[in-house]
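RECORD TYPE: protein structure
NAME: Glycosyltransferase family 1 protein
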Amino acid sequence: MRILHINSTIVVNSGVMSVLMNYFRNIDKNKVQFDFLYFDKINPNSKTYKNEIQKLGGNVYKIANLKNIFKFNKKLDEFLKNNHYSTVQIHDPFVLIFIYKTLRRNNVDNIIVHSHATKWSDKKLNGIRNRALCYKLNSQVDYKFACSSAAGNFLYKRADFYVMNNAIDLDRYAFNKNIRHDLRNKLNLNNKLVFGHVGNMVPQKNHMFLLEVFKEIIKLNSNSILILLGDGYLRDEIERKIRENNLTDKVIVFGKKMDVYHYYQVMDCMILPSLYEGLPMVGVEAQCSGLPIVFADTITREIGTDFSDFLSLNDSFKQWAEISIKLAESNINRDSGYLTMQNMGFNIKIEALKVTEKYKEINE
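PREDICTED:
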């Protein structure tokens, strides 16, 4: 069977695409194949998953931008007449109301909506719009998927849903003391207390809050370093704040890195003060390497372990700093992260088998 995934983009730094590609790499392709249809314009300099998708046996299609609903539906109608799919999985829930009739008219029997977040949007007006567009969702969708219970309860309220965990290749992220030693040497971070953050530089990730926390960390432990991985339209503003607070010798901005998993080994504690999340992939990856994390309590506790903690964004920067230092100095057994995350349902090899059975059940 072939599942058509409709998502806004196929770029490499998309969290949704990261989840889908983890499943696609590990799913039994004799039983299930993924195809992808996206609608956002992609910067020519951005890396995408197109080549990998095609190597894995999937197809990639570009359709008209969603800004022109009439044109979008016309192109989608033409596409579905030439490419029949009985199952379509939509990763931007608010899109369904625009394409529902087109899907049904082209004999799409199984419409899946997948909830990846616990907030409608970063922007207030967009949030109001997206909420309004989803008012019919529960009556239009055939199967409800979510990345976590929190994301499912947010979108579907009291309706039943299936949790498709944000599972990863645990072997790739397991703790490796040799990588830690070599990279800390290379970056001149020996004998430093290293805090870190991985995420796009957008309002949701709350970098300004993070920098305020780190200022308090330095007051308590001047031997601390903060490393930031990720990029985005707020990067200039973040780097300006670093300069204004005389933190240029304490904060290292790496930008995008394809080997992020190596940097988890370097860190002693990660800080994730996001304004909202579904279930952050970096939280799964980092904890697989045994890295303690201080999460904002806006993030679902489904991701919590006994070596991480949750704080309110209303707590003081000093409180965040104290807990961050406590976890960084806790000397936990970093090797324990692998088994902990496997027991929590984040081993992609196991979860891919479950999802295969779910798709089989849907298409019977």
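COMMENT: Residues 348-362 form the longest helix (15 residues).
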